[in-house]
Amino acid sequence: DAGVIQSPRHEVTEMGQEVTLRCKPISGHNSLFWYRQTMMRGLELLIYFNNNVPIDDSGMPEDRFSAKMPNASFSTLKIQPSEPRDSAVYFCASSGGLAGTVEYFGPGTRLTVT
Amino acid sequence: RKEVEQDPGPFNVPEGATVAFNCTYSNSASQSFFWYRQDCRKEPKLLMSVYSSGNEDGRFTAQLNRASQYISLLIRDSKLSDSATYLCVVLHYNQGGKLIFGQGTELSVKP
Predict the structure, then answer these.
(1) CB–CB of A6/A23 below 8 Å?
(2) Is the Cβ–Cβ distance between B62 and A20 less than 8 Å?
(3) Pairing of strands B32-38, A109-113
(4) Dihedral, B73, A89, B2, A68 alpha carbons, nearest 10
């Protein structure tokens, strides 16, 4: 299995631009999670989906952030407009059950907003 | 106060040493516990689950004390390859089943 796939691996953009991060979960997994990691705040859960349905988006920082999961094999996290404080590593993870079962993380997308 | 608190370290130890990490959690409704490992600039990976009776996996031993809301990880005979950040993770279903990560404890094993 290829594991969780994320793209791009690195993204540098200017403030105000739209950023779209992509994730392909492990085949057969029915839960997908988006996390953000910074030195200051550590690893934070932004949103998670179960069977393509958003279950908890309370971690999404503000309306500039949105996430979709149109099918079982693809999810996007969009930031529009981006701000320098959005600079972080964004991880996607998937699991074979509800949150709390073993989660497998993707390699992350390192986002820099200048 | 953070929900999951860990000593950030760094812990600098020689090869072969035994090292212990501690973690406290504030929500008594927490139901599942894990240790994850994260190498520099890499993704977190599950190291082991933590069971009420304590559990061991090779050189790694995890303990849980629900009364004190305390979790520990013991690494015996530490190797250079154990150098990483160790994340304490708790889950409580009354928050939608979210995993809550501690800030991590950095370990550096020196020759």
Answers:
(1) yes
(2) no
(3) unpaired
(4) -110
Q: Is the peptide bond before B10 cis (omega within 30 degrees of 0)?
A: yes
Kindly list the residues from chain B whose CB atom is less than 8 angstroms away from the CB atom of residue A102: 46
- Supply the pLDDT for residue B32: 87
- The tens digit of pLDDT for each residue in B54-68 reads 899 999 999 999 999
Using the Cβ of A40 and the Cβ atoms of chain B, whether some distance falls under 8 Å is answered with: no
> B42–A107: do the CB atoms touch at under 8 Å?
yes
Q: Check pLDDT > 90 for residue A89.
A: yes
Considering chain A, what is the average pLDDT of its residues? 92
- The distance of A51 to chain B (nearest Cα, Å) reads 15
Q: Which helix (H) or strand (E) holds A37?
A: strand A31-38
| φ/ψ bin of A72: left (φ > 0), alpha (ψ from -120 to 50), beta (otherwise) | alpha
